[in-house]
Amino acid sequence: NAPHKPATVLITGATGGFGGAFARRFAAIGSKLVLAGRKADRLKALRDELNTEVHTIEVDVRDRTAIEQAFGTLPAGFDEVETLINNAGLALGTDPAQKADLDDWETMIDTNDKGLVFCTRALLPGMIERGRGHVVNIGSTAGSYPYPGGNVYCASKAFVKQFSLSLRADLQGTGVRVTNVEPGMVETDFSLVRFKGDAEKAGKVYADTTPLTPDDVAEAVFWAATLPPHFNVNRLEIMPTTQAFGPLAIHRT
Ligand code: NDP
Ligand code: 8X3
């Protein structure tokens, strides 16, 4: 069976680790790409590297008006997005809730949740009209398994999981698919961003282990997105073999 080829794929956070890997994976089968991100130079470099038709959009997913405008006025040839990959997102800090920076919390909610909702809402009507589409959200194992200092990041990804499942309920019968891909540890700039540029602290997250790579995650997304249209993957949880679960914590006096 030849895989289903999404004609046009829109990727948010295309300037980051996962985003670039997703772009390369879909370019390899000739999907047209809409690449959204905040860094114009990285978008241009990726467009120049890829051997497929690419439209780039410089936009912050937290800017609702800008998202509505940019996604609502895609140029001919790119305006029928079949697969939306809601990937833009970040974690900031690992301080306990009682010490965490409220601005960091707001940024995570605005980006990981509100931004994802803005992007989804902007493209859903077109997908429904065409009777075909796929919203692929990048959740996280953090959305299922809390850890100390994960507080709002974990909660923001739990939102993504439940929003994905709720979307499925609303979209039944429309032909539009929804998948939440939930990776564990993957080496990208994620930890560098989380620790605000502290490379030593970020490096320790991945030291002496074998994390997943962005290409591994791209393979999972690609699998779900290229299944035949009648086949919906609701949730796809993936992690490195070297990662697993710990016991519940018990405070003893
Ligand atoms: P990166 O830091 O490499 O990439 C994050 C991407 O999100 C960047 O392109 C970044 O753009 C973009 N982004 C952040 N804020 C905004 C914003 N306000 N508007 C537009 N774009 C924004 O990390 P990853 O590739 O690892 O992360 C991608 C997604 O995967 C995130 O949602 C993350 O939560 C999730 N994830 C990551 C895991 C990991 O271990 N790495 C595991 C599970 C999930 P810019 O460069 O402009 O900041
Ligand atoms: C990223 C995975 O475990 O750092 O979503 O939260 S984790």
Automatic annotation (TrEMBL):
UniProt keyword annotation of Secreted present: no
Keywords on record: Oxidoreductase
UniProt entry tagged with the keyword Oxidoreductase: yes
Domain of life where this protein originates: Bacteria
Ranges where the Ketoreductase domain occurs: 7-184
MF terms in GO: oxidoreductase activity, acting on the CH-OH group of donors, NAD or NADP as acceptor
SMART domains noted in UniProt: PKS_KR
Family: Belongs to the short-chain dehydrogenases/reductases (SDR) family.
Name of the protein in question: Malonic semialdehyde reductase
Species of origin: Skermanella stibiiresistens SB22
